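re: ur question from yesterday

yeah so i grabbed the chain u mentioned. its 507 aa long if i counted rite. heres the sequnce exactly as i have it in my notes:
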Amino acid sequence: MDFKVMNKAISTNETLFDDFDERPVDCDFVLPDYCPDIAAVLKCTLKPVIQSKQLSGDRMLVDGQANIRVMYLDEARKCVRCCEFSQPFTSTFAVKSMGLNPCVRATAKTDYVNCRATSPRRLDVHGAFTDKLKITAEGGREVVCDATGGGLYTRNQPVSYSVPAASAEKTFTISEVLDLGSGKPPAEALIRGEAVPCLTDCKLLANKAIIKGDILLKNLYASDVSAGTMEQVRHEIPFSQIIDVDGLSDDWQCQVFLDVVSSDVHISVNQNGESCLLAVSIKLTAQLQCYRTGSSEVVIDAYSARCPLKLETGRLETQHLMHVRRETNVVKEAFELPPDGVSDIVDVWCEASPVGQRCEDGKAFVDGRLLISMLARDPGGAVAYYERPADFTLDYDERCDSMTADMAVTQVEYAIVGGKVELRLELEVVRCCYAGNTCQAVTAITAEDNAEFPPERAALKIYFAGGGESIWEIAKNCHTSMNAVMEENNLSSEILPEDTMLLVPLC
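ran it thru and got these structure tokens back, copy pasting raw so excuse formatting
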């Protein structure tokens, strides 16, 4: 039996590596000479930062730094002080293959951290963090896309896909000298700071991308250490970068990851000799993962009107990146105050992280977790630290099959109402929404040797069909054309709505 089968490799998004490394942190530190003695530890944070990735043979080396920050009350118990330490680390991952157009993403998150003062000048820190490495690349599955001749009929299904096409990374430094602002007293000591990068625009051109964004900078400083007076300041620092990406096309989709590698803030003096300036140097890494989108027809079933066929099939799974959305969402929470209350709030900050994503009933859901932190004075004027976790869910009117999400807190507003602190948080949420395609695709078609259907003696066959039957299956069983059956019976749907008698033309 002569027929022609056309094969095609359908591109797929393959996860080549996805693993993590749990790393303990056990160390003790002596305070620098310029730091006063410790009266009480308020808060210790551990923040692992990825600095570089390097492929060496079949191993991926991930280098980073575990940054430890301790806030404590000084010996006078009036002002909050801060000291920082760092510890380098290297994680090694065994990588068997990098594949075609690999996208490599390394992240790190804190598991836990504990800290205690073993003396007025020494700190003992125990904690752990997890760094994760994920490698995706373009894969392919060869399937039948068409077949002709030999009385063949094929049933096709369109599939769309998005696959890694290119990736690029650039590290750059933003340096600024910022004024504390009118009405703000000079700074005597820095206590706490955070830098949150937010992407505002990403323009794709041939072989390059232009990204724009803002660094949201918030600092808490002591204006009078002896009196324990503290002030908050906020700044926005815009940035723009051109990133070279080999092969990039303006019709591709692109994910942009912005990571703070380091953030250095120092008090500086103005022309009048007043400590009213902040010298800021922030190092960022921008990582772009670019995806090419395509579509194709694949054969999911076939038969011949002349002879039996042998079909080989395989599961074909593809994902189509529909869009990347950047949105601002508002979350409201309430923080219960201690029974004795507080006299005033010094500072409130929050960390947010996604813990799960769901797509169901035409809606998309992002489940997140907050860690709310607060410095406040008790009725006696002493500074205390409070924290509280909170779970929340964001929902979107969105139809998709799967989704990934990243988020960051960009603004915190708060007010004391009764016996609690009411918070209004602005979150920047970046969602990648995917449509999935799954089918049993035909991978090979062969005719059975020396086997042919006997010739039909009639031109028509009467077939009593049940409701819900497929015209394709009826035509396949009768070795005839589905289109001929539908035309003969004036059918508009391939699925019969009810029991009926069909006239089946025979080939």
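noticed a couple things. Helices lie at 471-478, 482-488. also The chain has two domains: 11-137+164-292+321-437, 454-507.
anyway ttyl
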